[in-house]
Fold Transcriptional regulator, HxlR family.
Amino acid sequence: MSKVKLSDSFNPMCPIRNILSRISDKWSMLVLYILHEKEVARFKELQRCIPDISQKMLTATLRTLEEDGFISRKVYAEVPPKVEYTLTDRGRSLLPHINMLIAWAMENMDGIMNDRIKKVE
């Protein structure tokens, strides 16, 4: 595996650092993964899939992902308004990397959990 050198990674204005921090927060990857599974989802569907996320945080996460071009938001002129979220091509291109992280986490979960228990004891 090649190592990528991030010469400005300690600078808060580093674009790579900025992008990675936005997709690696507590909720973004989970929202992207759910949209991958469902293909199209409404706000309440996403909220049901992530029961511990607040409405405010889900709204903020969706706005950030839309702002960065990972998801698209389609509003239908209905009463009540209908809004659907889908992955964009950019969002879909990130999914193989998220799947690799999930696979790595599953492979290492037992060891990590055991190490956490040892730290507590």
Remarks:
- The helical segments are 15-23, 28-38, 43-49, 55-67, 89-120.
